[in-house]
Amino acid sequence: MTNLPKWLEPVPAPLHHWLNGRKVDQVACVIADVAGGTRGKTVAAEKFSPSEKMFMADSIFYQTITGSYAEMEAEGQWTEADMVLTPDLATTVACPWTKDVTLQVIHDVSTRDGEPVGLAPRNVLKRVLSYYDREGWQPVVAPELEFYLTEPHTDPNFPVQPKSGRTNRKNVRRQVYSLSVLDEYGPVIEDIQNFAKAQGFDIDAIVQEDGSGQIEINLNHGDAVALADRVFCFKRTIHEAALKHDCFATFMAKPMQGEPGSAMHIHQSIVDKKTGKNIFSREDGQPSEKFYSFIAGQQQHLPSIFCLIAPYVNSYRRFIAAHSAPVNLEWGEDNRTTGLRIPLSPPQARRVENRIIGMDCNPYLALAACLASGFIGMKTGLSPRDAMIGEAYKSNLTMPRSLSLALEMFTGKTELTDMLGNDFCQLFRAIKKSEMDDYSAIITPWERDHLLLNV
Questions:
Q1: pLDDT digits over 184-196, tens only?
Q2: Inter-residue contact 125 to 31 (CB < 8 Å)
Q3: Which helix (H) or strand (E) is 192 found in, with range?
Q4: Which helix (H) or strand (E) holds 165?
Q5: Measured between alpha carbons, how far is residue 10 from residues 89, 199, 229, 377 in Å?
Q6: Pairing state of beta strands 331-333 and 340-342?
Q7: Taking CA 230 as the corner, what is the angle to CA 329 and CA 340, rounded to the nearest 5 degrees?
């Protein structure tokens, strides 16, 4: 402890264990951009002070996934005003993949007047949670992260290939929950676990998923901001563990043709802050009216903000009937074909699992979208459609099936956009429109293959 600066004393215990008295060399000061990517600055540890202001231009929130910038009718958009970054020391974690002893700290983002910057995804989630707080409620969430390990891929003209495991079998697939298949990628998974332990990330389980090279990692339940922070950090951790073993980790929703897509299932429940009891259950253990209204809120309102949980053209390639992903927002008990599944659980753990969300989403925005929809459902007393009995793949379509349709539904000011922040929603529309325009300008291999000489 003698080598540690004073500001490190209150940070999480796993960090002290990892440091083991070593001197910190660098501090990465980070925030999440609209895509969920990591932006920030790395400073020498001796120059880092929580009491000193750090600045960053607000233009980072206008950048699209292609690196271009969205044009908006926003006053002063290109003045690139400075935002103030304030470290949230409770988020301090190790960067165990670096040669130097490096720490990472997520920062809060505010104006120079001290107001939260509404364009920052972490602030969007906090804004939604403030509505719950006024009711005396606290959401509890648990994410499940799906991703692929692939061979290094540098030429976009060629298909992505799953990583070869220790037996060099590239076509290991359709062996969900197989421990032998999971062992194929043992060295990568071992480093993911070691990095997670160094960071204090509590992994509930790691399983082989349905696709070739597809892994699922389940995180234990907790506070919504804390879990969104964890997913945000953990994606970087998984990327780094994969690169250490000469492979890629991709969170793209559908990276390989013929393989299942990758989702981020989120389990959601709400507790009363005074009693700690789950408001989804009555005293007699039966489902409460708020439980049904929360489901109804997601059924009715998520389609209008669907682009927040399926944000790219590729996101919609997941939704193929009878191919692992739900294709609608029906609900049912212990039914994995529904978009809203109710897992088997005792009354105190009653929850709603949203299975629609893609792993390519920004975790802050996906949680904000789901919780805002559920909140409006509870406050207005909505009733859900009848529970789905049997397979839901052939039931009516209840969500947009392309990004262009999702953007058409994501228009105007509503109660939902008020919760998320209208300025943010305007920005998100502009970014997605810009990305759609870029995508529309590309001639795909399918067009060259089938149209070049046949039309």
A1: 899 999 999 999 9
A2: no
A3: helix 186-199
A4: none
A5: 8, 15, 18, 39
A6: parallel
A7: 10
107, pLDDT greater than 60: yes
| Alpha-helical regions (H) of 320-398 | 363-380
CATH of domain 6-119: 3.10.20.70
Bridge partners, 250 (sequence order): 148
Q: Topology of 128-450 in CATH?
A: Creatine Kinase; Chain A, domain 2 (3.30.590)
DSSP 288: P
What's the whole-number average pLDDT of the chain?
93
CATH 3.30.590.10 maps onto the chain at: 128-450
Q: SS3 for 427?
A: helix
- The CA distances from residue 120 to 32, 37, 259, 367, in Å, are 7, 12, 34, 14
Distance CA 256, CA 150 (A): 10
Q: 90-112: buried (b, 16+ CB within 10 Å) or exposed (e) per residue? A: ebbbbbbbeeebbbbbbbbbbee
Place of tokens 């953007």: 407
Other C-beta atoms within 10 Å of 1: how many?
8
Distance CA 413, CA 429 (A): 12
Q: 3-class SS at 319?
A: coil
Structure tokens at 280: 């989804």
pLDDT digits (tens, 9 = 90+) for 251-273: 999 999 989 999 999 999 999 99
Instruction: Give this prediction's pTM.
Output: 0.95
The 10 Å CB-count burial string (b at 16+, else e) for 273-306 is eeeeebbbbeeeeeebebbbbbbbbbbbbbbbbb
Closest to 305 measured CA to CA, from 384, 255, 375: 375
3-state secondary structure of 196: helix
CATH 3.10.20.70 in the chain: give the residue spans.
Answer: 6-119
Sign (positive/negative) of CA torsion 354, 63, 215, 28?
Answer: negative
Residue 29 · residue 43 · CB < 8 Å:
yes
pLDDT at residue 454 above 80? yes
Alpha-helical regions (H) of 111-185: 121-134, 179-184
Q: 3-state class of 332 per DSSP?
A: strand
Strand partners, 87: 107
